[in-house]
Structures are given as C-alpha cells and as structure tokens.
Amino acid sequence: MIGNWHCIIDKPRMKIQFKISKKADYTLDAVMEPLPVPLSFPDVTVQGSQLRGLGKVFWKPDEDLSVQLSFDGDSFTGELRIPSFGSFPLQGERGRGPYLAQSLLEGAAEHRKSGVRERTDEEIAEAVEALLADMSLEEKVGQMCQCQASNFSFGNAVESDPPEKLIAEGRAGSVLGAFDITRVFELQRIAVEQSPHGIPLLFHADVIHGSQTIFPIPLAWSCSWDMEAIQEACAIAAKEASASGTIFNHGPMIDITRDARWGRVSEGAGEDPFLGALIAKAQVAGYQGASLHNEETLVACLKHFIAYGAAEAGRDYNSVDISEGTLRNVYLPPFKAALEAGADSVMNAFNIYQGVPVAANMFVLKELLREELGFDGILISDYGSVDEIRIHGHAKDTKEAALKAVHATMDIEMVTRAFDHLPALVKEGKVSERQIDDAVRRILYVKYKTGIMDDPYRYIRPEKEIEYHFNEAHLQASLELARKSAVLLKNDGVLPLAKDAGKIALIGPFADSKDLLGPWQFSRYGHETVTLYEGLLEKGIPAERLLYAQGSGVNKAIDGGIEAAILQAREADIVVLALGESSDMSGEAASRMDVVIPEAQQRLAEAVIAEGKPTVLVLTNGRPLVLDWYDRHVDAILETWFLGSQAGHAIADVLTGDYNPSGKLTMSFPARIGQVPVYYNSFNTGRPVTDTNGKDKFISKYLDGPNDPLYPFGYGLSYTTFDISAITLDRREMTADDTITVTLKVTNTGGVSGEETVQMYIQDCCGSIVRPVKELKGFRKVWLEPGESREVTFTIKVEALTFWSPASGYAAEPGTFKVYIGSSSRDLSDGIEFELLDELNHNGEELN
C-alpha cells in the first residue's frame, strides 16, 4: 500500500489523492481536487491490507475527518468522511490518476480567440465610455459587487443568492475562490452568454507564495534578500494560477510587521520599510510582468492599506493607533514603491486609523491613496470590511456603511452585499452617479487591459495547467529559493552534518511531516511535499543510520512518544530536533499570546537534550519565536520557516553543507515575550541603555531581561566567516545634489565558499522630530571563495536621508549623520560621520 493512490468521485465530481509512507510508522496524507483542501491524518492504524486514518480539518475542528481503505493489489475501496462535505464511498487505483478537467481541453480551446491585440489606453477609454453610457445604474453597481464561486465558505458565512443567479442577472462583476478551472469556465459562460451586456468576470484568488508549486512563505523568502529570486517566484505563481483562469491576485501582502504575536507576519517581509519596499516592487514585477495583456500574468493587489501590521497586542483585526509620522515613515514606503512599480489594485486594511475604519476612511483612501499617491486603479474591500464599518460603530447600518465606503472611493465590495444599497443611495441623492461611474470605469479599464473584454476565455487554459502545474523547472526554482531563505541562528561547530559521521536521530513532529507549506496555499500537490526525513535519505544517508521518532504531536503528547525518542537519541551520535508550529498556527486569524514552541514539544526537547548528545534544532514556523532556552541548550539552530514543496530537500542541503546558509533575518527574534514588539529601527528614549549605565535604575530597561532581541534584524550565520574592513567615505560633506560613496573590503576568512550580505545603516543624529537609532539604506550580496576579498561600494543620495515630518512634509534636514557597515543591525562598524549642508547657508552664500 506504500505510494500514491487516487480515486474519482462523481457527485460532486472530484478527485482524491492519497500518499502512504512508512518509516517507524505509517503516515497518510491526502488532497482533494478541484477544491484544494489538504487532508491530514495524524492517527493512522494498519492491519493487514486495511488502513484507517483519523484527523481534523480547520473549518470544523470539533468533528473527525476519517478514512477507511482496503487494498487489493493495485486497487482499493473504502469510505472517506469530510466534515461539512459528508461521506463518500471510494474506489480507486495506484498513481496520481487522470487530469480531472480532461473534458475541458477541447471545449475551452473552441471558445478562445486568436490574434487579439492589446488595446491602447485611448481605445480602452473610448470603449469604456461607450459601455457606461449603455448601462443602467443597477448594472453598473453589479460590476462593483463580488460573489463567491460557490455557496461553501471557509470564512464567515455570507447571506447571498447563488453565484449563478447573481452573475446571470449582472449583480456580480467578479468571483472569489474559483479554484476549479471547470467552474471558472462555467461561470464565465454565464456572464458572457446570459448577463446584461455580456461583460466577462474577473476571477480573484489569494496567491501568496505559489499556486500549485509552493515557494517559501513571504517572511521566509524575504530572508533571502534576493529580489530576482522573489520576482521569479511570483512570476511562476502567476503562470500557474493564470493557467487555471485566475486573473486577479489578492496579493502581495506588504504590511510592515513588528509584532511576532500577529499571525500574518508570515505573509510579509518583516520589520524594515526600506527592504520591504524593494520586495514589494519585486513582487509586483513578478505578478504583473511587462503587461497585464499577457495571459500568464496576474493583477497585483496590494494589501492591506494601511497599517494592518500595527494591530494592538498583535491580535488580528484589532485596533491600530499610530501617528501620521509612523504611518508615512514606516508603513507607507512599501505601498509607495509598489504603486510606482505599477500595481493595478489595492485592498483596504481591516483596522481603524484615527478612529475611522479604513474601509470608510476618506483621508487614507481618497486623500492619501488616490489624490496624493495618484492611484487610479481598483480599490477592493477586504472580506466583509464594508459591513464591518457598522460593527466598528462608525455606521448605523449596512446602508450607511456602503455610503461611507463609496465616498472613500471603494470600487469593489468583496463577497458581502452592502453595495446592493447603492442604487437607492443614488436615487436619494446621497451618492452621485458620477461616483459610481468612476468606480465602474476603473473596473472596466482592468477588464479591457487584461484582454478579457475581447477574449473572455483567454485565461482558461487546461493544456497549460497540465504543462505548468508542479513541473520540474518550477520545483527547482522553489528549491533554490528555499535554500536561500533558511537562516542559521546558532552553530557551535556541529553543522554541517558529516554524511559518514555515525547515526543521526531525527526526532520531532516535523521530522517526517508534510506540513511544510505554511498558511495561505491551495496546492493540489501538498501530499507530495518533500519531508525532512525524505530529504536526508536523498542525501545518501542510509535508513539504518537515520533513526526516527515523532516524539510528540505539535500541540499534544503522544503515548510513548518521549520514551521512543529517548531510545533513538541514545543510539545516535547526533540528534536533529525538528520542532515548531503547524501551518494553521500562523497566517490570518492565528495570533498567539505566547510565541514559544508548544508545551508538548518543549517536554520532548527537554527529555532528549538531557541525554547529552550534540543537538541541532530545526525550526518550522511562520513567525519569530522565543528561543532563549534553546539558545542555551542546543548546539545549533536552523530557522527554516515553511519552505514549500521542496522543503525537505532544501533543509537537507543546508544541514549537510551542500548549500552554505546565507539567509538573514527580516524580523527580530525576541529574547522574551515581554519585549514584543521588538525591532531594530526604534527611537532612542531620553534615558537609553548604554554600555556603561546598564546597572542604573532610572533608565529605559526591564528588571528581568535585556532590551535587545535574541537575534536581531539582518542576522544570519554561515559555515564560513567574513571580515569587513577598510571602510572609507569619499567625502564628509554633501549637498542635496551630491552623493557620498562608501567603499569597503569584504574578505572570506573561513575555509569554504559562501555569500555575505553586507548591510549599510544610516543614523540621522538630530532632527526636527526624533529619528530612529539607525535605518537600513543599502545592502550588497557578495559571493566569495575562501581567502578571497572584494571591494564593495554604496552610494548615499539625499533620498536616503529624507523623511516625513508634520512641519515640513518629506524633506532631508541639514545636519550630522552617521553611516554604519556590518553583517547585521547589531554587528556593525563604528559610525562614520558626514554632514548634509544647508544650501541656503553654506559659506554664507546660497549654493547654485
């Protein structure tokens, strides 16, 4: 029974795939298709040719997921029960099985057109105006409404008519969550053939870190500091998703994140605005490509505008209370960069700003986003956030919520139906038809720009699904980015593992788990994720030397688990502890009060480490964790996050030294939970801790721990060592028109080749408002052979010194600055001073 199996269910038509493996025990993983729901069965029993599995699903945690399979040669029978879906008789065979949408191959091709050229903006504008003039008010409002692809929802229930009815009547202009290409085809046909004016639908989905080939979670790939690799990952995701009919991506998430308690830190690029802006730009370039008319691209939707990452106490959907300076200097830069890169859509944040929900906030959406930043694309609400204006207490009812959202220039309401009130509001004179026209104009522009107005079925390409999904080239790209995303946090000489150095005990709930994809992924290939155990076997470590014990579950003990793990540890020469969080412990609605490794795993770790063997901790997680105990008790720590489809291969490459780790943290790891939020680019207090006053009482410090994080932003070790020296500035004074060139030498002082990320930080020593103690303003990735040196240069321009203040807006203020160079925000050279001169008072004369 070991291997891949499949079965086809006719009503409703779907395919179930199973993968059965066996190490010390049997494991069973499964996925559904077309709805890409992973099914995990942590409790598996086998008797002869009979297998029984029990598990849970996140949408019904109080009900059992169960399966019974009976095998006979290359076939099986059985029954599967899925909460909310019901029970299904099973009859299947060995292998992946047939392509589920086989019948669509010819049907979709017949509906697609050839030779459709990209329209100019002038042509689009003319066509849009002609169509608007022919539409009724109700038909226009229909374009501003979105429906779900089915009546089933993993989120909050939505009262609405069936999607078929909404689309046929022209009451929906876009669809969320049509994972099935056949469903996309069905709904698009209804829109084109039955709705008023036959306006095609935009199909939306959340493609966050891969479509079918899953890449590292965004927090992980940000640790690569590799813009080209991140852009390629997004381009591949767009290629796979668009083949299935998806046109509009609810991503990237570019919120700055400073609080590890917030589950959605997994979706972003961490705590730094400068790096976050570069990554946001790379993601937009990857998703949208050179032209949205290319059917292998996606509309990029920037989320969440703005300051969602500042949720109080790290609790999802919570209040936000920040100054305009923090809004502009910290949270805005990634959005500004992504808009400049051409992003065609923005999604509002759930939170309030200055007491007003963002979905209704005219300052945030109309004045800042539309007028100041010049955004003229589609503004879409987040799920339910229009009606939540009422729940926040800013609107008396849903009708008033719709009124306020439209006044704030909201174009599309995601899924809920508050916008059904808009025709009445127009007739009452509370909303002008011009406002409706402006919104629909922006929506229709994107529909023309993507080409669906001229070729509605151009994204429905089942032949490309077969070619692109989970193909070898995409898996290789995922593997390469996964290697770059791992961060070595500690190494007391036990890594890399010698492939012939005795027995390795691989212990922990992630030692042989496929739960390595992370949150916000909908792959139909999750059961083929490479585990750490499989990755080490592929490295040539024989099974007899690779001792395995699960030890515990993620959140609960298992009978005899610790005892079995101790026995394996005693037999081994080195222990690899694979611990962390399950995928559903991070992401949306996954805030945690105490960001530690769960208690069951902590007890396992304590028992195993007590055996006194050299121990490596391999972490699987979606956020920074408190690791002070592990830092003191294990010999090495490798942060692997959720690395995606090829995770096991990537981790094994790093552990064995076939890949020298080069990742650098983009979020600080707290030493204790009480420090959170902790971030490197903080302000000095009036009583800062220094090297000399640490024992004084009346300073800004804790009584029971340090101020500094355990592992800071920019930190990450290598299997070699680097030296940064000979730092010079070509000048110590500059005007707004000048540049300063920083030159330095980087040397590989170790015994193996490797890559260092040299980082430049700048401190504005005195400003009209208090400035951060340092800010990242540049970095260079340098690959060096042992003993090799290379000169690296940075250029400082006035843009790097510019910030927003209430008095002056965006400006660089004359004064003293310091530049620091190093390998992390903590490991830096002494600051070298330079001056930005006042151009009106330089040598007593105005500078020309």
What does this entry show, briefly?
Helix content is 25%, strand content 23%.
What would you note in describing this structure?
This protein is α/β, with parallel strands linked by helices and 848 residues long. 25% of the residues lie in helices and 23% in strands. It is built from 22 helices and 34 strands. The strands form 7 sheets. It has a 9-stranded antiparallel beta sheet, with no helix packed on it. Strands 10-11-12-13-14-15-18 form a 7-stranded parallel beta sheet. Helix 2 crosses helix 15 (433-449) and helix 7 runs parallel beside helix 8. The longest helix has 17 residues, at 227-243. 53% of the residues are buried.
What is the fold's blueprint, element by element?
Blueprint: E1 3-9, E2 14-22, E3 26-33, E4 38-41, E5 43-47, E6 50-55, E7 65-72, E8 75-82, E9 86-94, H1 104-111, H2 121-133, H3 137-143, E10 146-148, H4 163-168, E11 174-176, H5 181-194, E12 202-205, H6 218-222, H7 227-243, E13 248-249, H8 273-288, E14 299-305, H9 324-331, H10 333-340, E15 345-348, E16 352-353, E17 356-357, H11 362-372, E18 378-380, H12 388-392, H13 398-407, H14 422-427, H15 433-449, H16 462-468, H17 472-485, E19 487-491, E20 504-507, H18 532-538, E21 546-549, H19 561-571, E22 574-580, H20 599-609, E23 615-620, H21 628-633, E24 636-639, H22 647-655, E25 722-729, E26 733-734, E27 740-748, E28 754-764, E29 775-784, E30 789-796, E31 803-805, E32 809-811, E33 815-822, E34 832-836
Parallel strand pairs: 10-11, 11-12, 12-13, 13-14, 14-15, 15-18, 20-21, 20-22, 22-23, 23-24, 26-34
Antiparallel strand pairs: 1-2, 1-9, 2-3, 3-4, 5-6, 6-7, 7-8, 8-9, 16-17, 19-24, 25-27, 27-30, 28-29, 28-33, 31-32, 33-34
Helix pairs in contact: 2-15, 3-15, 7-8, 7-16, 7-17, 8-10, 17-22, 18-22, 19-20
